[in-house]
Design brief:
single chain; alpha+beta; Uridine Diphospho-n-acetylenolpyruvylglucosamine Reductase, domain 2; Uridine Diphospho-n-acetylenolpyruvylglucosamine Reductase, domain 3; Vanillyl-alcohol Oxidase, Chain A, domain 3; nine-stranded antiparallel sheet; six-stranded antiparallel sheet; 20 strands; binds flavin-adenine dinucleotide
């Protein structure tokens, strides 16, 4: 979606700080910026960083280069950066960003490496800043400080001895930074809101290398913008997350076969409708996998609820459906996540999603259309198609509406299904076919839902395809406010012009 051969035309002066920022700029001197080519910028930045941090730099041909450039969930995201910097502290991150801006070097940032499209978290010929070495944390009474190399499993493991949990990813190895900056769907959104709603403070490196804190009292506008605004404002070096007493969770794993699909979809709609008034925190992973080789269709529920009521009471609608297997357990967030790995390099994989008001009949027709569309590409090697039903209850939206802070999404107070196609496949030669099929199908179904009044504009960055524009689905006034905040905190355009990847706010 974006050409990496972009030439930059920055004429702004470096190092000019915004007066209201809380800390001093690292680049107080002004320097003229000339147009710099991708290679020239990378050469400058790689050389400066290698001089300052020789032990934390990796270049093509060195022993760990391949390990680093394949540390991605989606094989399509494996690219070839000119060099890789693995900082160990916020100060080093600040130095690096300062170098990127000074050199006009194009760069990408990687946390857990799960965002899945080429260039979302990696870069050909530029600099990759990867957070693998920043895995420190500190547990406080009702918060935890988390650095951006941590996965959610790391967070749940850190909190388990205290009988507490944070509001984060549903699978084991998803990174904290990417998920938290784009919003973050946990099992417990119905009661506690999204992951972003549970961040009480961010430590941020701005484009000029300045380090600032964004919270309710310090840079509150930036604090708001980081709640769903992704990587458009700075690089976050620490998240302070709320934690909740949750020594145990009650879980259910229920597998069904094709004859249960309609009831499964109906139970999903009922779950998000009923969940809107609940006081029990709980949620799910719900999907339907289609094996084109065997013809098997497998609906799956992973249900989680706080507490020890066994089986978890929220999922009785599913329990009533005859299934292949049903397993209930009382466990901890750490133990539960430990079994839910999402291994890197499994496949090439494309997402695509839209939001709609829950309607089981329409969703069932969508399921049938999806299955027929998948049949048309059934010869694609390694095809792994999944129809995902994420639930966004009205109560999840209400958290931001009532907490005095809000977030950039501005979701209305209504239950939604975020339906998603996740499609894996094996070979690059099939990229265009799979992408065209899924892109067309996703927008076709959304178009029908627009006509029947069920569609909503909201697009979740964590479930979206690379062709989609989540910002177009946020309230226009929020997008305008984000642009103003970006202009204030990143006047040099470091995160809009030099930092590749993720979903960018645009001009
Ligand atoms: C298997 C799987 C399961 C998932 N499950 C969930 C789920 O349960 N809930 C949910 O909400 N989402 C889920 N997602 C979506 C997931 O939240 C996003 O892919 C998210 O971006 C992953 O975060 P990460 O740190 O691993 O990603 P990365 O790919 O490392 O980063 C994502 C984006 O954030 C930027 N970034 C990373 N670190 C920083 C930083 N410190 N400062 C500024 N920008 C940064 C990167 O440059 C990139 O653009 C899932 C995705 C996958 C593939």
């Amino acid at each position: 979606m974006k050409s990496l051969s972009l030439f930059l035309h920055l004429s702004s002066a470096l190092g000019s700080t915004t007066p209201s920022l809380n800390q001093r700029s690292r680049n107080d001197s002004c320097a003229a910026v000339s147009t710099v080519h991708l290679q020239t910028g990378a050469k400058c930045a790689c050389s400066k960083l290698a001089t300052s941090y020789p032990d934390f730099m990796i270049f093509p041909g060195s022993a760990n280069y391949t390990t680093q450039v394949t540390d991605y969930w989606d094989v399509r995201a494996d690219l070839d950066p000119a060099c890789i910097f693995l900082p160990t502290s916020a100060d080093q991150v600040a130095d690096a960003v300062s170098v990127f801006t000074t050199c006009q070097a194009q760069f990408a940032v990687r946390g857990g490496g799960h965002m899945n499209y080429p260039g979302s978290n990696n870069i050909n010929g530029g600099v990759l800043l990867a957070f693998n070495h920043m895995t420190d944390y500190q547990v406080h009474n009702d918060t935890i400080d988390v650095t951006p190399g941590m996965t959610w499993y790391n967070v749940y493991s850190a909190l388990e001895p205290y009988g507490r949990a944070a509001i984060g990813g549903r699978l084991k190895t998803i990174g904290v930074p990417g998920l938290t900056l784009i919003g973050g769907v946990s099992y417990f959104i119905n009661k506690y809101g999204f992951a972003m709603d549970n961040v009480v403070s961010y430590d941020v490196v701005l484009g000029n290398g300045t380090q600032v804190i964004a919270n309710a009292t310090s840079n509150p506008d930036l604090f708001w913008a980081l709640k769903g605004g992704a990587n458009n404002f700075g690089t976050v070096t620490k998240f302070t997350l709320k934690t909740y007493s949750m020594p145990h969770i009650s879980t259910t794993i229920q597998q069904f076969n094709e004859s249960a699909v309609y009831d499964f979809i109906t139970a999903t709609c009922n779950l998000v409708l009923a969940d809107s008034e609940t006081t029990v925190a709980g949620g799910s992973v719900l999907d339907i996998t289609y094996n084109v080789t065997t013809g098997d269709v497998a609906p799956l529920l992973l249900g989680v609820q706080e507490g020890i009521s066994n089986p978890p009471s929220m999922f009785t609608n599913f329990t009533a459906i005859p299934g292949v297997s049903k397993t209930n357990n009382v466990t901890t967030s750490k133990q539960w996540a430990s079994n839910l790995d999402s291994p890197k390099q499994m496949f090439r994989v494309l997402f695509g999603m839209h939001a709609m008001y829950p309607d089981p009949n329409v969703l069932y027709t969508m399921y049938q259309t999806w299955k027929s569309a998948i049949d048309t590409i059934a010869d694609v090697e390694g095809l792994y198609p999944t129809f995902v039903l994420n639930i966004s209850p009205a109560s999840a939206a209400r958290v931001a509406q009532t907490n005095g802070i809000g977030n950039v999404w501005g979701l209305d107070d209504e239950p939604l299904i975020w339906w998603q196609f996740s499609t894996g496949w094996a070979n690059a030669e099939d990229d265009l076919r799979v992408e065209a099929c899924i892109h067309q199908l996703t927008e076709h179904l959304h178009g029908i839902n627009k006509q029947n009044g069920l569609a909503r504009d909201f697009i979740y960055m964590g479930d979206a395809g690379e062709w989609q524009d989540p910002f177009a689905g946020f309230p226009a006034e929020n997008v305008q406010r984000m642009r103003e905040i970006r202009g204030k905190y990143d006047p040099l355009g470091t995160f809009s012009r030099l930092n590749w990847g993720g979903f960018k706010l645009g001009v």
